[in-house]
Write a structure and sequence with these properties.
The chain is of the alpha+beta class. The chain is built from four helices and three strands. The longest helix is centred in the C-terminal third of the chain and has 11 residues. The two termini are 19 Å apart.
Length: 129
Amino acid sequence: MAAGAIALAGAFNGVAAQESGPDIIVLTGSSLGGVKFTHGAHQAMTDCASCHHESRPEKPLESEFQPCTACHTKPATPPMTTSIRDAFHNPTAKAGSCVDCHVKEAAAGKAAPTKCTGCHKKENVAPGS
């Protein structure tokens, strides 16, 4: 999934509501369609560090919970080597932060999409588009 517009910003545990990030983020840029990412629901299911990883020497964080696109771009821009799509899943969508978690949750009997079209939908467009 390529993403042109992402604003993954937020924390959940012990942080004021205004600092918890947007409830819904629309990830665009994929020919399969946009992904309506329910940030609010996801932050209630896992810790923030699952997605908002620690600072890296090649591109230090400017804030604790900055948008993924602050470092991960399409295509990856040096010194980064991970594109925005690859930050979420590998080119075959068989592994990666989103796919790994969804497969694990689905195996546990939870409702987590595991096919591309379960997340990528043509009708999902960024606000104001």
